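User: Can you predict the 3D structure for this chain?
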Amino acid sequence: LLCLGVVLHFELGHAAVDTTMIRDKLDQKKTSIRRIRDVIEMKWADFLNRSTSDGTVFPRGVSTGVLSGCGNTLPLARCDPTLGLAQGCECSGKKVTDNTVIIKPLAEFKDEAFNKKAGNVAAFLAQDQNLSNILKSVSGQLDYENKLMYFGSIDGVMTYYPAMLWTRDDGTCGDRYDPRQRPWFLSGSNGPKNVILILDSSGSMQNSGRMELLKTAAKQLVDSMTFADYIGVVDFDDEARTFLGLTFMAAASAPFRGKIKDWIDNIKDGGGTNYDGAFARAFEMADISYETGYHSKCQTVFVFITDGENTGADPTPKIQQRRSRLGATKNEMYIIIGLGSEATKMTSNGAGVVLKKLACESGGIFESVPDGSSDSTGRYTNENEMIQALMTFSRFFQASNSILQRKTVSFSEIYTGTNMKMDMTTASAAVYDKTDVTRWKMLGVVGIDVTTCDLEKRLFDTNPDIQQQPLWPEETKIPGCKCAEHFVYDDKEYTGCTVVDWPMPWCGTINCGIRGPTVTDTGYWADCKPFGVRAELEAELLRSGEECETQVITQCQVEALRREGLKCGGVVDCTPQALAREQDSNFFSGLPGAKYRSDTSQSSWAENARDDVSFDSVAWSDSGETCKHCENEAMRPQCALPPICGKSGIPSLQDTSLTSATPTTTSALATSLSLSLFLSFSFFVASHGD
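Assistant: Here is the predicted structure, written as structure tokens:
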């Protein structure tokens, strides 16, 4: 079979599952997204060499042909039922324009230069039909499995196809939306990663709203992660704690992200600030994950956030010893963030100096965020600064992948879209300026929303028994480890898998799995391997994008990522010329842009930003609350309806092995330190929106 090129996924105790057609389909999606990426990269190269006689890209009095997603109208709009139903189309489709891409700028509070940056992206992407024609050729017009296609720039501008006005459900034009913080962008630009958050909860965190700010930013970072990532969170004051006492990083599945966010919400401030104890707990979590293989096999970043002076031992020697011990075998990075007035002081005795020294001696990056205040909307004035500081870990990955020339196409976990109520996965890939063939520069990320119901139906039609209970003995997620025929948990006997005290099926095992003598009478346990079309499809999606590089970048390249005033200086083999060259290779402050007009208003580049026409919230409503989506016979593929419609044609899982018992008030399983292993294997369905 292998010689014939037939890809079969064999599992002990299971019938062979043929995933050939799924892999072929995913390869087609990879080809489509690479095609779009190639066009964007060529248009960027052309843009760098193009200008009008007076040096401007958009001369005054000349039509730009560019539309804004935050405009008030959409010329030549039609109602497309293959993207769902909306009240603006009287529930007969959604209003779109086919002949152009459309630009969505950042909100002004996120970036004062938002229109200038949007104009730059508009100048190189939206002035001719080449990109639109390429997007149309792989869009819902010819391949109904591909829905929305988009490009997010490294400086936060979004361009997408088919063109539609951005939803205004919250009264704004997506003011809080930043493509750089979305899972699809981070998946495409970062690749799989390990992130351990180390959060200060000392008594001083109650000052100036610091704790609420930290929680908001930390939860947003958690939301940005995907099922290919692993995450750990340490909360510390005088002592260090982890969620449920976990000593491992866990797979960042959607339910685990939700539980971690709930835990972050319930962190209380009080006590001292023991840096050393916090790092010791984080290192334990990383080391055990490395030893047991429960991590992404890619880069690890420790993100340390504090507002006060250290009341424990100096963690620097511990970090330096660790770096020496691990050498080049693990690519670890330290992001140190000082929050508030004390932690941002750069005087001789200020905590900011101490934190910067800690970052520099650890080969890491220091960021500082001053205190802010709450405005009339309840948003802290320094919220965006905090989020940007927290996203330093992402900029590190983006620079690393540019240097290492990562070209992998990644797929997201399956989710139900926010604006298009259908199950989808997003294929994404980084886009580069390749002018210098030895040092690529990341421009942003391109993505395609792909329906999954049709992929699941193909998988079921090829494997009609895939929804049925696997043959006994049941497999676990640990290769070669099977469930015990009988096991005792919490004084009750079980046969097969159980969901008692945890949402995923698990079982007792013998001489394999997770050692937990106090959990089951067998002395070991593991979670049961999921089966069925959804589990097989998500496994293929994960495998398709899990490649990564772990090569350590140079300290000069790290120095280039440090902000002015917070650089370490004295970096070996980092001449001013080398540093300047590396800094010019990172577009984090904005893509270099040609002049396009002297003013910076949206009306200088957007054809549909007319002051004399107000936004008609009824005519352009994107809401489909009153629409009968399940009766949308024009949807393509036909199965791409909201999950509640239940028209997939796939029977439910026939899992006859599950046993149950009355849940106990104190779960031995949930309180076991080994619980994180159980979590780290879990694959869940996400609902994080576009």
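Residues 308 and 330 are 30 Å apart (CA to CA). Residues 1-14, 595-600, 660-689 have pLDDT under 50 and may be disordered.
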